Write a sequence for this structure.
């Protein structure tokens, strides 16, 4: 058994593996390799035009109802918010 030959082959294999590890770590630092994860959503959630129209109609009804309630109050009483 040639012990020196075995040691030399193992050292070569170790060096080869170290080069592979180094290149993978370098790729990771440049963002070329990334773990699969859900993208993080930032900012406000956007609405499509149908959702905007629905919200607009709902708010129009809300403010009309509020105005009707204000007009139905007896004179001389102020809103507690003013």
């Amino acid at each position: 058994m040639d012990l020196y030959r075995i040691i030399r082959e193992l050292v070569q294999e170790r060096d080869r593996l170290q080069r592979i590890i180094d290149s993978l770590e370098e790729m990771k630092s440049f963002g070329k390799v990334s773990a699969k994860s859900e993208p993080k959503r930032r900012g406000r959630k956007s609405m499509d035009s149908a959702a905007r129209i629905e919200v607009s109609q709902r708010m129009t009804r809300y403010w009309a109802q509020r105005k009707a309630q204000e007009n139905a109050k007896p004179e001389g009483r102020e809103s507690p918010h003013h």
Observations:
- The helical segments are 3-29, 49-72.
- The chain has a mean pLDDT of 83.
- Residues 1-30 form one domain.
- DSSP finds two helices and no strands in the chain.
